[in-house]
Design brief:
74% helix; globular; 132 residues; mainly alpha; single chain
Length: 132
């Protein structure tokens, strides 16, 4: 038991209790999403926003009312960037193994995607809520 408690104490000291609880909540959300057939590293919030975009039933209105307006959209944007990076992992690794010092093209695509999503999120939070 002591072997489990010690790393938890160190994590709380390093990040603070609020960030620790947030990280545990995200990990739990990813676990339950995966348990019920969701995609890799996707939270329940991101999955529900994806369902909303597809016109399927979703729980975004509940999640957003609890965690703040636009939470699901931000979670989906973050997951999209992470998923894009993961999908290019093999290409990036291959270039690094060949000794290529320049960042792979996938890196720049990921940056552009993130910047595009970030601009959309900023517009969404400023009141442009046309994608609901």
């Amino acid at each position: 038991m002591k072997a489990v408690i010690q790393p938890v104490k160190l994590c709380i000291l390093k990040y603070g209790i609020t960030k620790y609880i947030g990280r545990v909540a995200i990990a739990t959300s990813i676990f339950f999403n995966t348990l019920f057939g969701g995609l890799n590293n996707q939270t329940v919030s991101a999955r529900n926003y994806e369902r909303r975009k597809q016109g399927l039933s979703n729980l975004c209105w509940i999640i957003d009312s609890i965690l703040g307006e636009g939470h699901c959209k931000r979670a989906w944007a973050k997951w999209t960037v992470i998923n894009n990076a993961i999908s290019h992992y093999d290409e990036i690794n291959r270039q690094l193994e060949l000794g290529d010092k320049t960042p792979p093209q996938a890196y720049y695509h990921g940056q552009r995607l993130y910047q595009s999503l970030f601009r959309k999120m900023i517009n969404y939070t400023k009141g442009s809520k046309n994608e609901r």
